[in-house]
Amino acid sequence: MVTLIENWYLVHLYGDEQGVDLSEWWGRVLWGNVLMDASGNFEPGQFVCSSPVVKFIPPSVKTRSGLIYSLQGKGERVDLPFKFFHKLRSGVSPEKLLPYAKDYPAPP
C-alpha cells in the first residue's frame, strides 16, 4: 500500500543526540503531510515522520520499515542535527527547525 505525501522534506540528520559530536551523518527521514493513504494508517492532513529512508527515487521513498511513500509536488532536502529528531517526530516542521540548525554545522 502507498501513502501519498505533499509538502514534503527529505531530512538528512547528522550528529549525536546531544548535538556535541556533529562529525557523522546519521541517515535520512521523510517528513510531510498525508494527502491520501491506501492502507488507512494515516488521516489526510496528518504529518508523517518516517523511519529511516533506504531508497529515494523520486517520486517515491521506501523506508526501513517497508513503507512506500509517493511524493506529490516539489519537496525540499534539508540537513538537521539529530538532536532535533524528537521534534520532527512530534510534528514540528523542518522549516521551523532550520533557523536553530545554524548553530550546529553539518559535516562535509
Summarize the structure.
The protein is mainly β and 108 residues long.
Would you kindly provide a written description of the structure presented here, covering whatever features stand out?
By secondary structure, the chain is mainly β. The protein has helices spanning about 85-90, 95-100, and strands spanning about 1-15, 25-35, 45-50, 55, 60-65, 70, 75-80. It is elongated. The protein starts with a strand and ends in a 7-residue tail after the last helix. Strands 1, 2, 3, 4, 5, 6 and 7 form a seven-stranded mixed sheet that branches. It has two helices and seven strands. The longest helix has 8 residues, at about 95-100.
Shape: elongated
On the 0 to 100 scale, the average pLDDT is 95
- Count of helices? 2
Rg from C-alpha positions?
Answer: 14 Å
The SSE order reads EEEEEEEHH
End-to-end separation = 36 Å
Contiguous uncertain segments of 5+ residues: none
Portion of residues in helices? 10-25%
User: What summary fits the major beta sheet?
Assistant: 7 strands, mixed
